[in-house]
Amino acid sequence: MRAVKLVSIVVFSLLAFLAVPSPVAADIGDHASGSGTLPTNWGGHCDQGAFFEFTATGATGNDAVGTFTFTCPPSDNPLAGWTMTGTISCLRIWDESELLPYGDAYGELSEVAAVGGTVTTSVNFIAPGDQLHFIVGDGVATDVNDRMGVLLTSADCGAAFDGGGPDYVIESGAITVIDGGDVVPAPECSDATDNDGDFLVDYPADPGCDSVTDTTESPNPTPPAVLSKDDCKKGGYATYGFKNQGTCIASLN
Fold this sequence. Notes:
By secondary structure, this protein is mainly beta. The protein is built from two helices and eleven strands. It has one domain. Helix content is about 5%, strand content about 30%. Strands 1, 2, 3, 4, 5, 6, 7, 8, 9, 10 and 11 form an eleven-stranded antiparallel β-sheet that branches.
């Protein structure tokens, strides 16, 4: 009976029959998140405008970590009045060029992601341990035309828009999808990382950096030669690349 109820609330999209490329596997740096209110016609899941919140961060391959929550306020509908939570295990992202087969249907989206995982809190049509996935869209304009698809059985983030494309524009809130492959890493001299292992980080602390836009922290310039003990005194040792006065003087021996 539970399976019949679930099928009855899933609205299949005509776009499911189009030949659409599958999304690429998630990478470290890929991210999808959002929160807000869904429209009352959201796939038959809730007639009161459900609230959603989720965050998914790519790990390796198709793996991801995160959580999701969907809440449907109580109403006269016996299927309303529920909260469903779960853990996210997969994330895949389509970029704008991969959405071209849809024509104008999703032309207002910059990125689309499939998010999937396992239910941890029961509702009247899905039990703890069941898997599901949903597809979300990040609008080209900030916080405009962000979209959510229906809930689909299985945590298959590799599928195309199999009856659950991001067809519903959210009523409020925002959805963000970030393709880590599109993010340009910061230059080594401004990335808050000791890239060359000399215990010095970024410009101007690392002598291998000429500026914050320098792409490498190495090599460090060769320090001048120590000519006398006086060169090492009053903090002069640092000029010659030593950590203290004693090691500076010892280099003369």
